[in-house]
Amino acid sequence: MLYVVLSVICSVSVGILLKLAKKKHYSFYQIISINYIIAWGLTQLMYQPQLKTQLSSSTSSIIIALSILLPVIFVFQAKAIKYSGIVKTDIAQRMSLFLSLLFSFFIAKEIFGIYKWIGILLAFVAIFLTFYRKNDAELTKNNKWHFLPLVLLGFGVIDILFKKVASLQELQFTEVLFLVFPGALFVSLIISIYYLIKGKESFNPINILWGIGVGILNFGNISLYIKAHQALSSNPSTVFASMNMGVIVLGSLVGIMVFKEKVNRWNYLGILLSLLAIGFISYSQLK
Questions:
Q1: What is the DSSP string of 248-281?
Q2: 222 closest CA partner among 134, 142, 158, 151
Q3: Using an 8 Å Cβ cutoff, are 131 and 270 in contact?
Q4: How far apart are CA 109 and CA 236, in angstroms?
Q5: Whole-angstrom Cα distance, residue 83 to residue 30?
Q6: SUPFAM superfamilies from the entry (predicted)?
Q7: Distance in Å from the first CA to the final CA of the chain
Q8: Residue 189 confidence (pLDDT)
Q9: Which stretches of 200-251 are assigned E, i.e. beta strand?
Q10: What was the pLDDT predicted at 139?
Q11: What 3-state DSSP class applies to 136?
Q12: CA distance 217 to 222
């Protein structure tokens, strides 16, 4: 579970940097592009993977899918926040856990014990309670609601693909990342250039510094997440659920203590249930 905890810390830290960057009106897309350059460089520096070009069609498909989905999901997330608000977007992202658990149960054929079922049930209740708002100005009505299911589907598929990466026999996960990051960089550059050409954004050197910070943390998040799946290869649902609940708990605490976000009693109950969910899921590993 140590890998999960460290991955959660990196994931929440990425969110903090992106939230601060948004407040300062820095380019979200330029930061993401720089992030993949740094992540690619760190993969080479830390692991020195061997570049392999002769790959099976299934492995190639996973690499191509991740190269496209990783940067594109950032776009969907930004659009969903813009049109539907942060609360609904967070719910959609965390509900991607449902797709991950379906994969664990029906595809990976994982056997769920009673304690894990209790933890999963508590997790879903916690998701709704943690992000519940009686009144929220951000939840405006519009016809751009389709970005929400795209966020849910995108994050769910990415989680499943990372599980597949952890179980690959053909390549080590470091070799996969060494191929995925430049692909994601290429896609993110296309998006950044589009916004520059359209005049919606302008280049700012400060985005490079923010991109370096996000890249270091994103590299840590992804590599530790895959290591968690490798360490708990027979229990992918434990990684999926613990990761989501961990992000909710730590993210909520940061929001309350650092960004002074308003929290009601239902939100606090959701955070408490998240901790209980993690406890039950972790305890199921001992049984």
A1: HHHHHHHHHHTS-----HHHHHHHHHHHHHHHHH
A2: 158
A3: yes
A4: 10
A5: 21
A6: Multidrug resistance efflux transporter EmrE
A7: 15
A8: 95
A9: none
A10: 47
A11: coil
A12: 9
Cβ(201)–Cβ(30) under 8 Å?
A: yes
Rounded to 10 deg, the angle between the 265-284 and 236-257 helix axes is 150
Sign of CA dihedral 84, 89, 90, 94: positive
List Cα–Cα distances, 183 to 4, 64, 66, 71, 188, in angstroms: 26, 7, 8, 10, 9
Q: What is the pLDDT of residues 203-212, one digit of tens each?
A: 899 999 999 9
**Whether the predicted pLDDT of 69 surpasses 60:** yes
96 against 213, higher pLDDT: 213
pLDDT at 241: 82
Q: Are residues 77 and 89 in contact, defined by beta-carbon separation less than 8 angstroms? A: yes
Q: Which runs of consecutive H residues, i.e. helices, occur in 48-85?
A: 57-84
What are 123-143's pLDDT values in tens digits?
888 878 876 766 554 444 556
Domain positions in the chain: 2-284
pLDDT in tens, 247-275: 878 877 887 788 777 778 888 898 888 88
Q: What is the pLDDT of residue 138?
A: 45
- Residue 287, H or E segment: none
* CA atoms of 96 and 50, how far apart (whole Å): 33
Binned at pLDDT 50, 70 and 90, residue 34 comes out as: very high
Q: Is 132 exposed, middle or buried (0-12, 13-18, 19+ CB in 10 A)?
A: middle
Q: What share of the chain in percent tops pLDDT 90?
A: 34
Q: What pLDDT score does 240 carry?
A: 83
| Interaxial angle between packed helices 173-197 and 147-166, expressed in degrees from 0 to 180 and rounded to the nearest 10 | 150
| Residue labelled with tokens 């960089």 | 185
Amino acid identity for residue 41 in this structure: G
